[in-house]
Amino acid sequence: MNEYIFQLLISILLCFSIPIILFYFLRKRWRISWIFFLIGAGSFIFSQIIHLPLNNFLGKINWIADLQIATGSDLIRTAIILGLTAGICEELTRWLILFIIEKVNHKKSSGLSAIALGIGHGGIEAIILGAIFVGANITTVLFLKLNDPSLLQIDVAQWQLIQDHYLPIINLPGGGFLPFVERMLAIILHVSLSVWVWRSYSKKKPIILLAAILYHTIVDMVLVLIIVWGINYWFAETLFLLMILPAPIIAYQWLKQESFWHLPVAKRSKGNFAIVLRHEIFYLRKSHKIWLIPLVFILIALVSVITAFFLPEIFKSIEEMQQYAALIPDPTIADAITQYVKNFSQFGFILVILIGMSAVSNEKEKGTAALFLSKPISRSSFILAKSLSLMLLIGISFLLSTIIAYFYIIILFGEIPFHHLLIINLNLFLWILPLIGLTILGSTIGKSTSSSAGIALALCVLLFILSAIPLTQGLFPGALLANISDYNIFLDLHPIQWWNPSAMLMVIAIFVLSQLLAIGLLEKQELD
């Protein structure tokens, strides 16, 4: 089981990184914008917004049967419909995206655009399905290792279903690599079909679009049947490979006719990341943020702990509240930790917006960005240096607040394991991480500091709204605060339950994608 967990970790890392690395080499070879990767990612999300409700509706009218009990003609019909809805929604979305790109750019799209969109489409699917969702599997496998269904708060029957599902995969040689293999094959298919749809659009041949939909339908239909029939997983992946093999071969034959294929390697600006990072650190010192931010974090830690300890005394000192003072229980460590998390979650995102909203927009307003980027420095280095410097500042500030809170809790309340505070602060840091990314993105979009602040605030609020939706809240940043907000609950949980791998991977994904979008947008902007 330990070997399977290790393999899963490798799969998650590869599913997360390989799509970005693939696009990086595509960008390095032909100097294509990250925006195409993100448009491709957006096309997948948009297609699923249509695809999933459509499947749900078809299930309600009994066109799609429950795969756990479907047999015979019901199973075949369900597999065909599931494949067809996937093919129609995803391939038509690709066609629509190519149409919009052509209208916006006022020029014909190329096969290079199709490859980029395909990597983005398959890449975000790999990140979501092969990394974020698989991240939850690690927790489940650890529960299986402990063999304690009470941790999941489920009955014996549900526990048996989980064992029946996971144990065959755990015992399968190399089973932990299955998510990675499947997602990489899916990326090949998505890139190939993206080229097919582009060929249909550019040559005005709808028959190729219909062929792409049919191809997608057949592949997904067979995969559904394979899953239901319980065929050996590695045999299934081999069959998947054989099914998709014609798609890239045909796509390659079409791409060979394209002029971009033989273009020389595009010249790129030097990164000089270290130079830009030193510039950012110098700016933080010059603006005194390098001292002020840690000081604010330390003050929040002090106020949280001290307020929790002296709250009964504060109530006693207020004449109108004295009659209720006796009802207030003696303060505990849990009160201090709860107050600590509450204060950071309330003021943390505001603080991030305040210190990050001017990161890019201020330099664009003053003209220093144009001067700086006139040198052999890439715009990606410019954005990433700002993000990293802000991350380092916030990280160091959290570490200092952890130390201060630890000593004051010991002085006022008594002993507390230091690693508990470290875990709580790590979750808080990860909770803030996507806010840093969205603030830098807002600062890149905005033309002034005030507009950047408004955009950053709107993006952060949107993220909080997604965190509050029942269907998605377990994957978004708010889930990181769920098990640390109440220290009493935190102590009652098994250490495995202190972590939420899916939410952690999601916040990293949001941060990375927001930075890629910021880079792409800055590359499109003309700086004065």
Notes on the structure:
This protein is an all-alpha fold. Helix 1 runs parallel beside helix 6. It starts with a helix and ends with a helix.
List strands and helices in order, with pairings.
Elements: H1 2-30, H2 34-60, H3 72-105, H4 111-146, H5 156-170, H6 178-202, H7 206-229, H8 233-244, H9 246-255, H10 273-286, H11 289-317, H12 322-325, H13 333-356, H14 361-366, H15 368-373, H16 379-412, H17 418-445, H18 449-468, H19 478-482, H20 487-492, H21 501-524
Helix pairs in contact: 1-4, 1-6, 2-3, 2-4, 3-6, 3-7, 4-6, 4-21, 6-7, 6-8, 6-9, 7-8, 10-16, 11-13, 11-16, 13-17, 13-18, 16-17, 16-21, 17-18, 17-21
* Beta-strand proportion: under 5%
- Described by its quaternary structure, the protein is single chain
How far the N terminus sits from the C terminus, by CA atoms, comes to 58 Å
User: Helices and strands, in N-to-C order?
Assistant: HHHHHHHHHHHHHHHHHHHHH
Poorly predicted regions are none
Q: What is the strand tally?
A: 0
Helix proportion: over 70%
Mean pLDDT: 86
Gyration radius from CA atoms, angstroms? 26 Å
Structural class: mainly alpha
What is the general shape?
globular
